[in-house]
Amino acid sequence: MVDAENNKMEWSVTRRDVLLAAAAGLAIGCGFLLVPKRYFRMPQRSQAFVGKVEHYQLDIAGTISRGIRELGISPVEIKGKRVLLKPNLVETALGAPHINTHPLVLRGAIEAFLGLGASTVMVAEGPGHRRDTLAVYEESGLADVLIEDRIRFHDLNYITGYELPNAGRQSSMRILTFPGLFKEVDWIVSVAKMKTHHWAGVTLSMKNLFGVMPGIYYGWPKNVLHREGIENSILDINATLKPHFAIVDGIVGMEGDGPIMGEPKRVGVLVMGQNLAAVDATCCRIMGIDPYKVSYLERADNWLGPISETAIQQRGEAIASVQTNFGLIEQIPAQRGIRLT
Amino acid sequence: MSLSSLNQIAQKELSRRFLPEGGVAEQSRGQFRTDATAWGILAYGSAGGRYETLERHRARLIREQEGDGSLGVDKGHRDSYWPTALAILAWQNSPVSQSAQSLAIRFLLESTGVHSPKNPDAPWAHDTSLRGWPWIKDTHSWIEPTALCLMALRATGHGEHERVSEAIRMMLNRQLPHGGWNYGNTLMFGKELHPMPESTGAGLAGLAGVVSHEKVARSLEYLQGEADRLRTPISLGWTLLGLAAWGSWPANSLALVERCLANQSRYGEYDTSALCLLLLGALAGEKGNNVPLLVNSSGRRSPALVVS
User: Fold this and answer.
1) Going along chain A, which residue ranges are E strands?
2) Strands A201-203 and A187-197
3) Where are the domains of chain B?
4) How far apart are CA A50 and CA A283, in angstroms?
5) A229 and B CB contact within 8 Å
6) CATH number of the B3-306 domain
7) Phi, psi at residue A123, to the nearest 5°?
8) How close B302 comes to chain A (CA, Å)?
9) Fewest CB atoms within 10 Å of the CB: A95, A138, A165, A265?
10) What is the pLDDT along chain B (308 residues), one digit of tens a residue?
11) Helix (H, G, I), strand (E, B) or coil at A53
């Protein structure tokens, strides 16, 4: 209260006090600004299914169907839908089938989705290393399988694109260009491979989506995405595209110097779910890797999905029953110190 | 398959993709694209197509050219300027295209990818300071776009330019130790990466006539060993072009091309660019330097003079 007569205040405020208060407010405000936004996010919850499949000749379609059922996806959600399966086809090398998603996993996914009432299932990929997508399609063995099953394959590298505003805003890309084909499908399913990666730490269902970006706009390799930061680009693509489902081929994965030069790693699992971050975090734990130490997963936490073990309701096999440490290479910075302890 | 039947196939297949307003579609009943148009002009011209038709498509490319001389893959994507080198080749021997071609050449000579001083501690082994050309603006230089730019600049008499000499050094620096090229990395974290036929073919076609045989002997050997097993148009097309450029076009090339064309029943109709690359590879053995990609007489020099 100000006593105008005496020009006094019951409690006086000097200029120094005002400046101190402003400085304190600024410091607190800056403190909040410095703390990453993810610490203020609302916790999210999701589910992941782990199915044991010891080798590729076993009933993969049955395991995927069971997974979809146990994840609580009703047939109504799939019936009549046009489903696009996006495998991980990178390049081929003699004696290294573990580079790419195994063709029989795709056959299993096709059977499962058609069995659940999907109107169409197609497979589409735009490899990042090879200009000749058809060569990878052929040499990976996928062509034999899809032609026998009468399933259409689309080369995403050459499809004229359409633009969407970048919903992730992690990189400086204002827009992202996706293949026009995506406007004609209802479900996009990332059918990835369980691999360690020399730039990203791991490549699973989220990183697999680099392959949807057409080479005619992003190059070979998709160097635009590298220049923008691999982690930034993974997050931007996933945030913008919002894929619907993930299946990770961990029957035989790759450890060490992935995604190309690593060694095969037999795990005997398929991991799946509707939330890609949750699926990838589950894969990491199976691989003996801490998802919180994989930069892009940690940044995705409670934004694109939960990665905390307690926030992911586990279906199928327990992680502990299938967990096997993937070899990591100390000289590779992205793999250094990411082991689950 | 004879040369005349190949010419007929090329003319018939490509005519189905020509657009009435000029330009070539990415597929029959598809949309216009600059890369498809440039490849279409090169293949249709090599197959003896009509000059008036070629000029109509060249005019479309001129209409698509940006003010700085570049051509993006489509109008909305100026940064994807890799078709510029193809357009330069497509405009060759066309007087009315000369100013557009000159502008595009200036663009290539003034543009470069992103480069940095070589770092001996980096996980990659190649010399990142050597400039070639990128696929997309503001990215690194890679093999195929650099090979295309080399061919375009040499075909138009710029073989002596310092950018050409540097690009030749860049291509040799990116050659894999055991032969061949991939998209443009050699060793990563100490491991040699795999070669790829299409990149190797492009690399060899780009360097023919400007480096000695011994510089690329391992790459030629690798590619000669690959040819018979190739069933897809981009790999086979670049392989035949690369081998033809070094006088090693396989005797069974036309049979390989015939098999590859027949594989459209397996894969579906080929994209225009892929189809044209295959046709050019087929024509290269018969026509040699009359295939535009391999025209380099004005830039041809004694191999020993260029790269030591």
Assistant:
1) 2-3, 8-9, 46-52, 82-87, 120-125, 153-155, 161-165, 175-179, 187-197, 201-203, 245-255, 263-273, 312-316
2) antiparallel
3) 3-306
4) 9
5) no
6) 1.50.10.20
7) -120, 135
8) 32
9) A95
10) 888 888 899 899 999 999 999 999 999 989 999 999 999 999 999 999 999 999 999 999 999 999 999 999 998 899 999 999 999 999 999 999 999 999 999 999 999 989 999 999 999 999 999 999 999 999 999 999 999 999 999 999 999 999 999 999 999 999 999 999 999 999 999 999 999 999 999 999 999 999 999 999 999 999 999 999 999 999 999 999 999 999 999 999 999 999 999 999 999 999 999 999 999 999 998 765 567 777 543 334 333 333 33
11) coil
Say whether A134 and B234 touch across the interface (CB within 8 A).
yes
Report the predicted TM-score, pTM, of the whole model to 2 decimal places: 0.91
Report, in angstroms and rounded to the nearest whole number, the Rg of chain A calculated over CA atoms: 24
Report pLDDT digits (tens) over A178-223.
Answer: 999 999 999 999 999 999 999 999 999 999 999 999 999 999 999 9
- Domain boundaries along the sequence of chain A: 44-335
User: Distances from the Cα of A340 to the Cαs of A38, A188, A310, A330, in angstroms?
Assistant: 21, 30, 16, 14
Q: Which CATH code fits A44-335?
A: 3.40.50
Structure ipTM: 0.94
Q: Please, what is the Cα angle at B290 between B20 and B263, to 5 degrees?
A: 65
Chain A interface, best mutation among B17, B84, B232, B278, by max A CB count within 10 A? B232
User: Please, is A132 exposed, middle or buried when counting C-beta atoms within 10 Å of its C-beta (0-12, 13-18, 19+)?
Assistant: buried
Chain B interface includes A227 (CB < 8 A): yes
Within 14-73 of B, beta carbons closer than 8 Å to A belong to: 26, 31, 33, 35, 73
